[in-house]
Write a structure and sequence with these properties.
Three copies of one chain form a homotrimer. By secondary structure, chain A is an alpha+beta fold. Chain A has two domains: 131 residues, DNA Polymerase III, Chain A, domain 2 (Roll), CATH 3.10.150; 124 residues, Proliferating Cell Nuclear Antigen (Box). In chain A, 17% of the residues lie in helices and 41% in strands. Chain A has five helices and 18 strands. Chain A has a nine-stranded antiparallel sheet with strand order 6-2-3-4-18-17-16-10-14. In chain A, helix 1 packs across helix 2 and helix 4 runs antiparallel to helix 5. Chains A and B meet through helix 4 and strand 13 of A and helix 2 and strand 9 of B.
Chain lengths: 274, 274, 274
């Protein structure tokens, strides 16, 4: 039996696109018998990414072993770029100098494409360990540590951040997020002037998927790199809704739920400059 | 009562796009109780732009005061770029350091975007005065001063100029416009060779909107910067037809009529090099 | 009578697009009473292009004389770029300094565009002669010289080469083509790793146009510049199928059949580096 994992590739392609910018320094991908996970830390951006996709998040998933790889997601992205939406992907380890083999088979069977990728050499030990972010483990957040929780359509969040970036000048611009009981405000200052986008609490029984829910314990005022926030919002392709937890003296958590139990989570350290 | 003007933004967005390149050195925008106007001079290009949009040219327009601002239209363009077709815009003056506030509210009410723009400091006195182009005031042109008038579909005019620019080499290329009784000829010379586009007098009772009408008093042969002419043709988004007046020893006038009494007019000095 | 050839331009536009990169050093175009031909050699790429389009390959073709020109196809491409699909083109010689005139008339008759192109000065004598590639004349290939013949959908061939180029790094990458009785393999090595695309022999009575047919006398293993192969595959716009002949100690022949008796043929010298 081939020691490989065979899966339908479209959701994996979305995960790679959604995380490649935040995980720019390399990511640990694990394909196992129960599903897929991706972990990456980016110390220079002050960000951590964790993606968990159980087998049932895929249209089809069949894993007979565990294949673990540390790869450059921008390379993965270029490989997925030439794949079709409905390609079946076989992932397996292969001998050096390349460490991983990805085989794409399309349903029309007119060609088979194999890519043997080089793994990147980073501090593997660290990456292969469980993520060292116990303080922000999602289910263990104490009520008293949670300043505010925001739930909104992921596309609205993406449009707001993209709008601010289009007006803003450069990669160094910060966005200030201010949460009150009624509204969340995003503010940037650039050469052109000042941009303020306001998103108010909103609930329509007819369209609960469009609701904007603010649960505030304490008012929040944090700053993030506008470019980093924009990278995070790409995960809108993975989920219709985003939940943002603003925590006391801890990274904020941006969570996109996928299928029943899967998720993509981004842990961002607020910028010090206030 | 808020001292502001509230209006539907789509036509304003088109005006900004159509005039930003000709008015590259800044424009004076006035929102008043009766409508909108834009004035700009560009001495280095030898061009003047005047746009007048009465309130009825907008889907909705409500002004309770006059807001005047001198702004960089390329900044305005970036702000409008992120707006939606159906956004309602509130324009008002705001305190320094920004001088103007534009608030965009979309009908879905999922967010409100405010942009506080810096005004640009140019010779305000001059700009705020009525345009100093009495000699070319449209309604006062003497018959004897009018060499020729050309009326044609604005998209055909745009396609011709864009075609010449695609073949031509650089921004320094000139286009020669030659008007005879039967036809108008556009000619450029570049590295690739010579391009000549001919547009003949034409009238079809079934499709009067496609007619090309030449009223010639004297044959015309003038040159303009091909790049500048191409900037002017962007106003095709504002009107289906363009009227060009070639005047004796005065700038030529390119007029796009908007709604009942509105217009965008470009006054271009022909290039001296002949 | 005007000494010109009048023809419908859409297929000519496709020919120019499909050959301009391989024929980057200039091409000889001949419009005659019986049809059109294009010949070009590119010594630096080790490639020869020959296109023959009999009059019946055009929607309409009417030639009363022979017009021959040596032109830069990238210039031609820019001129055709602004033409419409259904333009009628009149080709005739014109006086120096430009040598050729192309007049585009669209069926809506709203404008006529004339381009007077400069011919390029290359070793005309050589180019105007019949192509000096008798050893690879298609119909005279001896069975014993033909290592293998491959027939496949031109779009599949194009997708494979484009996929390898998207993953590959730069213009200097080589693609190795390996033909066995069952399959053809395309392999490249780049910074990201190794890519191998396999296309198997395939025949479906229901869809003969999707068949992949391998006729192998001897196994083949040749290398070409990936960039050059990608330029060749643009001819997929001219024909649904491509036939590749791998010959002993001779250039390989990539043939795209057009209409009944027309064709575009690319003769490529395999790269020496093995």
């Amino acid at each position: 039996m081939v020691r490989a994992c065979v899966l339908q590739g479209s959701i994996l392609k979305k995960v790679v696109e959604a995380t490649k910018d935040v995980a720019a320094e390399g990511a640990n991908l694990v394909f196992s018998t129960v599903g897929f996970s991706l972990k990456a830390t980016n110390p220079s951006l002050g960000a951590i990414v964790a993606v968990v996709l159980p087998a049932d998040a895929f249209d089809s998933y069949h894993g007979v072993c565990t294949v673990s790889m540390i790869v450059d997601l921008h390379c993965m992205s270029r490989i997925f770029h030439v794949s079709s939406e409905d390609d079946i992907i076989t992932v397996e380890e292969c001998p050096e100098p390349e460490g991983v083999s990805l085989v794409f088979q399309n349903p029309r069977h007119d060609k088979t494409s194999e890519f043997r990728m080089k793994e990147i050499s980073i501090d593997k030990e660290w990456l292969l360990h469980p993520l060292h972010i116990p303080e922000v483990e999602h289910h263990s957040i104490l009520e008293t540590e949670n300043l505010a929780t925001l739930k909104m359509p992921s596309l609205v969040f993406q449009r707001i951040c993209s709008e601010l970036a289009d007006i803003g000048d450069s990669g160094s611009v910060l966005v200030t997020i201010k949460v009150t009981e009624e509204a969340i405000k995003f503010k940037t200052k650039g050469e052109l002037g000042t941009s303020i986008v306001t998103c108010s609490q909103k609930f329509d029984v007819q369209k609960p998927e469009e609701s904007v829910v603010i649960e505030m314990n304490e008012p929040v005022r944090v700053k993030f790199s506008l470019k980093l926030i924009n990278s995070v919002t790409k995960a809108a392709s993975l989920s219709d809704r985003v939940t943002i937890n603003f925590l006391r003296e801890m990274p904020s958590v941006f969570e996109y739920k996928i299928a029943q139990t899967g998720y993509a989570r981004f842990y961002l350290h607020p910028s010090k400059e206030l």
